[in-house]
Design brief:
Blueprint: E1 4-8, E2 13-18, H1 29-44, E3 50-55, E4 60-62, H2 75-93, E5 99-103, E6 106-108, H3 110-117, E7 120-124, E8 128-130, H4 144-152, H5 154-163, E9 167-168, H6 169-174, E10 180-182, H7 187-199, H8 203-214, H9 220-235, H10 238-248
Parallel strand pairs: 2-3, 3-5, 4-6, 5-7, 6-8, 7-10
Antiparallel strand pairs: 1-2, 8-9
Bound molecules: coenzyme A.
Length: about 260
């Protein structure tokens, strides 16, 4: 791939790196296409247990959508541009395996939105977040107005999106925008640790839990109905029998993903 690095280690963790360091890993159409392809590959590969997504270099995760694309966009182009990025990010959010963003610097605009589409977020101490689109005469278009309020609440999301202010890693942690803040040298290891921890659990239960969590933006009664249906499906898996048996026999469960 032209703009991404894709490697899978022995533990089955796919490390996907947005690799345009000279442009602080800004997202152009090629990056969006390649992200979709890389996540498709990770989804299809039975050896891959989960994904860590990061940016090349020590300065930037992703400094936003590539602004050089913007000056000539018509209304129709802009609409298509937003739908295209949203579709690619939806595929990330819909992964049945854990996806952890390792945010190693600037996460502005589309970079912040890309991190929001991941299931978990680990930030290095130098990470800086922001939705600065209003400074450019636009608004977030890759999901920021929808995922940010769901994560941090509408009041804080409104402040972040309307002011375009920068948010430090520590502040991001305090408001629940990231799950951990660690020194940069420990970033990838911490993100991979999440994938390792989760991949030791029953894989079908993990994927159903991710699906149920996605339904938490539906009305409560509908979400609860969906949760109960998934709970029923989970009970019928071999792994659920094995999990209960292992607990009762005081041994470690041997999950097969069946
Ligand atoms: N789109 C396109 N190019 C970008 C970019 C973006 N979002 N962010 C950075 N770049 C490019 C710069 O144009 C520059 O390219 P050049 O060397 O060919 O001129 C290169 O990346 C380095 O950026 P630079 O601005 O020189 O680095 P800096 O350390 O001084 O500042 C930022 C870093 C992130 C503060 C600054 O680049 C910035 O504000 N970027 C835009 C952030 C943004 O508004 N994102 C939301 C877009 S919707």
């Amino acid at each position: 791939m032209e703009t991404l690095l894709y490697e899978v280690d022995d533990a089955g963790i796919a490390l996907i790196t947005v690799n345009r360091p000279d442009k602080l890993n800004a997202l152009n159409a090629t990056v969006i296409d390649e992200l979709e392809a890389a996540f498709r590959q990770a989804r299809a590969d039975g050896e891959v247990k989960g994904v860590v997504l990061t940016g090349a270099g020590e300065k930037s995760f992703v400094a936003g959508a590539d602004i050089s694309q913007f000056p000539d966009l018509t209304a129709l182009d802009g609409h298509r541009f937003a739908l295209r990025g949203q579709a690619a990010f939806n595929r990330i959010e819909e992964m049945a395996k854990p996806v952890v963003a390792a945010i190693n610097g600037y996460a502005f605009g589309g970079g912040c939105e890309l991190a929001l589409a991941c299931h978990l977020r680990v930030a290095s101490e130098n990470a800086i977040f922001g939705q600065p689109e209003v400074n450019l005469g636009i608004l977030p278009g890759y999901g920021g107005t929808q995922r940010l309020p769901r994560l941090v609440g509408r009041g804080l999301a409104t402040e972040i999106i309307l002011t375009g202010d920068r948010i430090s890693a520590q502040r991001a942690y305090e408001i629940g925008l990231v799950n951990r803040v660690v020194p940069q040298a420990e970033l990838i290891e911490t993100a991979e640790g999440f994938v390792r921890t989760i991949s030791a659990k029953a894989p079908l239960a993990v994927s159903m839990a991710l699906e149920a969590l996605r339904a938490s933006d539906q009305p409560l009664r509908e979400g609860l109905r969906f949760e109960a249906a998934l709970f029923g499906q989970a009970c019928a898996t071999e792994d659920a029998k094995e999990g209960a048996r292992a607990f009762l026999e005081r041994r470690k469960a041997d999950f097969k993903g069946q």
